[in-house]
Amino acid sequence: MPPLAAIERFFERLFERPSARLFRTRVQPVQIQRRIERAMETGRRPTTGRTLVPNRFIVHLHPDDLAGFEDAADGLASGLADEALSFARAHHYALTDRPRVDLVSDPTVQRADIRIDARMTSSQPAERVAGSGAGGGPSEVGPGGEPADPTATAVFTLPQPHLPRATLRVTDPDGQTRHVALGPGALTIGRADDNDLVARDVRVSRHHGRIAGRRGTLVYEDLGSRNGSTVNGEPVREVVLGVGDRLQVGDTTFVLELDEAAD
C-alpha cells in the first residue's frame, strides 16, 4: 500500500470507526463507494500505455451493518458497480471487465467498519441466485446449488465469450445519420479509405480508433489520434462501451445500440 493511502487508512480507523460505534451511525453507501474508489487507486497496475485497476470488489461488512440495507443490497451492489465504472472512466483507467461488487456478511469486521478485497478478474460463467453480487455478472453458486463463498478461490474453464449483436448510430458533422452493424471482428474508425468505418470529418485522424470484442464486452481504443476521443463527454484512451454510450471523435458521434433483430 502506498504511504499516503496507509496514512489515510490509519486516520480513518482512528476517528471514523470509534465515532460511528459511539453514536450508532450506520454505514452509508457513499462510505462504501469511497472505499471502493480508494481500493481501485491502491490496486493500480501501470502497463504499456495504460493503467489497469481492480474490477472485482468484495465488501466485508459486520452482519448488523449489512442487515441495515435489508432488501436493497442487490440494488446497492449494482449501483456501486456503476459508480466504480464511472470513476475508472473519469480517471482514464483500464479494466479487464466491467466492475462487480459483492456485499459479504463478515463477523470478523467490527461494527461500522468496512473492509474491501479488490481483485482483477475476467468474465466467468455463473448462475443467478438471491444474493448481493452485481455489476459484472451474477452471484456464483456452489456445486450443490448453495451460494458459494465469494471470497474463495475457484477453478473454472472460461467459455467462449458471447458478444452482443449491436449497431452504431453514426451522426456525421452535416447531421446525416447512418447505422453500422458491429460484426465479430474489430471495426476501425478513421478518415482513410482503408478503415471499416470511413468518417466524413476533417477533424478525425486517418486511423482514429477501433472497436473490438474482448471477454464478452465491446472495447473502444483510441489509436493515438490528433484530436482524441470522448465517451459521454470524458476523454478516453480505452474504455468498455455500454448500450447508449455516446462516443465522439472529431465532430462525428457514435451511439451504441442493441440490434433489434437480435434473438
Rg, alpha carbons: 21 Å
Number of helices, where a helix is a run of at least 4 consecutive DSSP H or I residues: 4
Largest sheet: 6 strands, antiparallel
- Overall SS class: alpha+beta
- Taken as a percent bin, the fraction of beta residues is 25-35%
The total strand number stands at: 16
Distance from N terminus to C terminus (CA atoms, Å) equals: 47 Å
Query: Low-confidence segments, ≥5 residues, pLDDT <50?
Result: 1-5, 13-24, 124-148, 153-162
- SSE series: HHEEEHHEEEEEEEEEEEEE
Overall mean pLDDT stands at 77
Strand order of the largest sheet: 7-6-16-15-12-13
What does this entry look like structurally?
By secondary structure, the chain is of the alpha+beta class. Helices cover 22% and strands 28% of the residues. It is built from four helices and 16 strands. The strands form four sheets. A six-stranded antiparallel beta sheet has the order 7-6-16-15-12-13, with no helix packed on it. It has a five-stranded mixed beta sheet with strand order 9-8-10-11-14, with no helix packed on it. The chain has a three-stranded mixed beta sheet with strand order 4-3-5. A hairpin with a 2-residue loop joins β10 (209-214) and β11. α2 (29-42) crosses α4. 27% of the residues are buried. The model is unreliable at 1-5, 13-24, 124-148 and 153-162 (pLDDT under 50).
